[in-house]
Design brief:
The protein has 174 residues and is of the alpha+beta class. It has one domain: 2-Layer Sandwich (Alpha-Beta Plaits). Helix content is 29%, strand content 26%. Strands 1, 2, 3, 4, 5 and 10 form a 6-stranded antiparallel sheet that branches. A hairpin with a 3-residue loop joins strand 8 and strand 9. The radius of gyration is 16 Å and the shape is globular. The relative contact order is 0.20.
Amino acid sequence: MQHKRIREMSLSDQDWKSAYIGIGSNLDNPARQVQNAMDILDGQEGCRVTKRSSLYASAPIGFAEQPRFINAACQLTTHHDAFDLMRLLQRLEDQLGRIRTAIVNGPRSIDLDLLLYEDERIVSPELTVPHPRMHQRRFVLEPLIEIEPEIIIPMKGRALDFLIECRDQQVEKN
């Protein structure tokens, strides 16, 4: 009985941290891949998906000779610190069949990006939070703003204010 009380205390609401995850795919039924990734993430120990965006279709950026992407965002509450969460996301990508190639911004079955973690700013060789290009990518901003309209990108400002700078990028709600 004592063990249960200790576990309940360690999983108190104070221990939960908020994070936002960007999700994308353009291979192997991308809409299914994105939905599946959110479901699997929600089932991970120490993680709860609390909000999910709609799916958005977007043209590839950079390497243009590939299928359109399906993108989404989710809000996650977690007991993991930012570095552990990033490693969890990478393990899930591997489990879901992501093959990493030398093609930057190339096709992929799944991409899970840690966009924001609380209001923290992290710059390290392994992880940068906020995601360094999120404010320049409409396919990130649209779903993020859908689930959290007034979200602030630390050291940058309101996400909504960056949409105008990305208006030439093609993104359609699916």
